[in-house]
Amino acid sequence: MGCMLSAASCNKWLMEDIFQTKDYGAEQAPITPDKLGNNHVFFLPYLMGERSPINDTNARGAFVGMTMDTSRADLTQAVLEGVAFAIRDSLEVARSLGISIRRSMICGGGAKSPLWRTIMANVLGVELDLPASEQGPGMGGAMLAMVACGAYATVEEACAKLVRVSETVRPDPELTARYEERYQQFRQIYPALKGIFPALL
After folding, report:
1. C-alpha–C-alpha distance, residues 24 and 33, integer Å
2. What is the pTM of this model?
3. pLDDT, tens digit, for every residue of 116-144?
4. Do 70 and 40 meet the contact criterion of CB atoms below 8 Å apart?
5. Would 112 be classed as within a structural domain?
């Protein structure tokens, strides 16, 4: 299991604490399709340290690559992409173990953003299903309980009966290729800064 300490909460921090707004849609509106995979700013989403896969309590958040031309929208995009890149790190661990993941579910606060779903699908290079129910973790827990008490024979049977998909986001090969290049750049940032973080505490 790959688990981040700060994911959608990074976007909440930027929007509400830094930009002083709750209009997430308005902040994402300038991020048009042509800008995806072309942002010059990176964001390390380690605002509370990080668990998977780096397991570093000293890790910290950072914007890298800003210039005088960097805009508010660039920072917003960098946060959305940074979280996706960090989730990709955990996906790469699974792939290194021989696990083939071509499709996944996406739910929660961040999944409400069509833009973020598009970024996530293309950074990960997998199809992402949006469940009709927003109660992802709670629903999963209830389904496991139903299997445990015999209401369903298997988890697969419970999923087939209870899970409904409202939308599927499919990666675009051209955009996935652009994000692959950006991801390889992202991977170099944390190792370069790792030694500095403990001195900042």
Report:
1. 17
2. 0.92
3. 999 999 999 999 999 988 777 788 899 99
4. yes
5. no
**Residue 164 counted as domain residue:** no
Residue 3 lies in a domain: no
pLDDT digits (tens, 9 = 90+) for 27-44: 999 999 999 999 999 999
Q: State the Cα–Cα distance between residues 118 and 111, nearest whole angstrom.
A: 10
The residue type of 53 is P
User: CA distances (Å), 189 to each of 11, 74, 108, 156, 192, in order?
Assistant: 20, 18, 28, 39, 5
CATH label of the domain that carries residue 63: 3.30.420.40
- Residue type at position 54: I
Residue 190 lies in a domain: yes
If one counts the domains in the chain, the total is 1
CA distances from 92 to 77, 100, 136, 187, 191 (A): 22, 10, 23, 11, 16
* Amino acid at site 168: T
With contact defined as beta carbons under 8 Å apart, do 201 and 58 qualify?
A: yes
pLDDT at site 137 = 79
Contacts of 24 by beta carbon, 8 Å cutoff, 6+ apart: 11, 15, 113
Residue 161 CB coordination number (10 Å):
12
Range of the domain at 28: 8-101+174-200
